[in-house]
Specification:
about 70% helix, mainly alpha, about 160 residues, elongated, 4 helices
C-alpha cells in the first residue's frame, strides 16, 4: 500500500513539474512575442516621428509653415525623439523661438483675446521670427538632411523662401 502511495505521489509530483515546465515555456514564448511586438511598435513610432520631423522641417524650408509655428511643432517632436529638452543643444534656435512664442495665444484661444493685444503680439512674434529666420532655417535644413525629404515632397527640396521676413 505504501509503495502504491509513493508511486502515486511521484506521479503527481512529475505531473506538477511537467505542468510547471509547460507554464514556464508559455511565459517565455509570451515574453518573446511581447518583446517582438514592442520592438515593432517602437520602430513604427520612431518612423512616424522621423517622418513628421522631416515634413515640418521641409515645410519651414519651403515657406508652407511660419517659423514660430514650425518651432513649436518641432520642439514637441524633438522632445519625443530625444529625452525632453536634450535636443536643445543640437537645435538651440528652434528651442529659443519656441520659448519666445509658446505663451502667445494660438488657434481658438486667439479669438478670446482683444484685437489690439493680438496685433501687438503678432508684431512681437514677427520681429522674433525675423531675428531667428536664418538660424532656424539652417537648423531646419540640418533636420531635413538628417531625416530625409518626405515622400512626395522631393520636388520642393530646393525651394528656400526669401519672403519669411
Amino acid at each position: 500500500m505504501m509503495a502504491l502511495l509513493a508511486i502515486l505521489g511521484g506521479a503527481v509530483v512529475l505531473a506538477l513539474a511537467g505542468y510547471a515546465g509547460w507554464l514556464w515555456w508559455c511565459l517565455l514564448a509570451q515574453k518573446r512575442e511581447r518583446d517582438t511586438h514592442n520592438a515593432t511598435v517602437l520602430a513604427e513610432t520612431e518612423a512616424d516621428l522621423a517622418r513628421s520631423i522631416a515634413i515640418i522641417a521641409d515645410s519651414l524650408l519651403t515657406g508652407e509653415l511660419n517659423l514660430s509655428e514650425g518651432a513649436i511643432r518641432l520642439k514637441v517632436l524633438l522632445d519625443h525623439w530625444y529625452s525632453p529638452a536634450s535636443g536643445q543643444s543640437d537645435y538651440p534656435s528652434i528651442y529659443s523661438l519656441f520659448l519666445s512664442t509658446s505663451t502667445m495665444p494660438r488657434g481658438e484661444e486667439r479669438a478670446t483675446w482683444p484685437k489690439a493685444e493680438i496685433r501687438r503680439l503678432d508684431r512681437e512674434r514677427e520681429m522674433l521670427e525675423v531675428a531667428a529666420k536664418d538660424s532656424v532655417l539652417d537648423e531646419a535644413a540640418r533636420l531635413r538632411e538628417r531625416f530625409g525629404v518626405p515622400e512626395g515632397r522631393e520636388g520642393l527640396v530646393t525651394a528656400r523662401p526669401e519672403t519669411l521676413a
